[in-house]
Amino acid sequence: MPLFDLPLERLREYRPERDEPADFDDFWARTLAEAAALDLAPVFTPYEIPLPAVEVFDVSFAGWDGHRINGWFVVPKADGPVPCVVQYIGYSGGRGFPHDHLAWPAAGYAVLVVDTRGQGGANINAPGATADPHGGGSPQAPGMMTRGILAPEDYYYRRVFTDAVRAVDVAAAHPAVDGGRIVVSGGSQGGGIAQAVAALRGEVRAALVDVPFLTHFRRAVEITGRDPYQEIVRFLATQRGSADQVFRTLSYFDGLNFAARGRVPALYSVALMDDVCPPSTVFAAYNHWQGPKEIAVWPWNNHEGGGGFQKEEQFRYLHKLLSDR
Predict the structure, then answer these.
(1) Which residues are catalytic?
(2) Contact at 8 Å (CB) between 14 and 280?
């Protein structure tokens, strides 16, 4: 994919106006208060697997509306509480297998890998284990992007973001975790989720936000021909009178509006040839982020971003950040 977006010098200054509903904060305060009224009911079931350097738990907890959300909790064997990375997953993926998630424990961190409800059912490499019992009553395009999109109360990502916020409490509930050193992390969809959670749960220590999806929706659907954003385009191509309603709903979930509320340290990444999550959408969020921030720029990469190179950047970033505590 050739360079197709703004040149880097303009990207570094790209800070578009935000389309923010007047009741954005009230909407999320109400949503999270409803969830908090439910028992979190975390269950950590030991998982037998011959990985002697770590302990592995099959996790479940009550997410939005009490629906059970699954995950893996992998923690290094240590003398005391350790930092924890809460890991959110890219679009269509599930939690996968415990041995997929050993990098953070090898670095001395626990990791809580959170299933994304309704996803991972057809992903052989990263199967999921969590259903989405709640469906929107309106039409939708195939995929998850337009599920319940005609009303913010029904939209799919209201449930996903609520699950993700609750997962931070799950991590803090385990005695092996240092509750003052919980970090949220993810790439693509997972990056968009981490970005939102860091804004909604300002108590987390940091956010690792790689090539984030779910950000600057209006520009994304106008300049990329790739899924998942094209799911919205296909929906609008048939539901022709619903554009205002759709973008109103999306404004409650747009990473720009969460970034404007982000206060914790954040390490972003962006790939300049990324036609799935265009670089201008990433820089738009990064430039709105209010807390201490850094961004790794990968000029010659598409949506894979920095890959393993970015993981090394994250190790170094967190080592310094948490050592300076």
Answers:
(1) 188, 274, 303
(2) yes
pLDDT above 90: residue 238:
yes
Domains of the chain and any CATH numbers: 8-15+42-316 (3.40.50.1820)
Listed residue (211, 244, 203) closest to 88, CA to CA: 211
| Dist CA 277 CA 260 (whole Å) | 19
Task: Evaluate whether 85 touches 185 at the Cβ level (below 8 Å).
Answer: yes
Burial 132-159 (b: 16+ CB within 10 A, else e): bebebebebbebbbbbbbbebebbbbbb
Is 91 marked as binding a ligand? yes
Judge contact between 219 and 275, C-beta under 8 A.
no
Q: Which pTM does this prediction carry?
A: 0.97
Model confidence pLDDT, tens digit, residues 291-307: 999 999 999 999 999 99
Tokens representing residue 205 in the block: 């220590």
Structure tokens at 48: 């037998």
Host H or E run for residue 246: helix 243-251
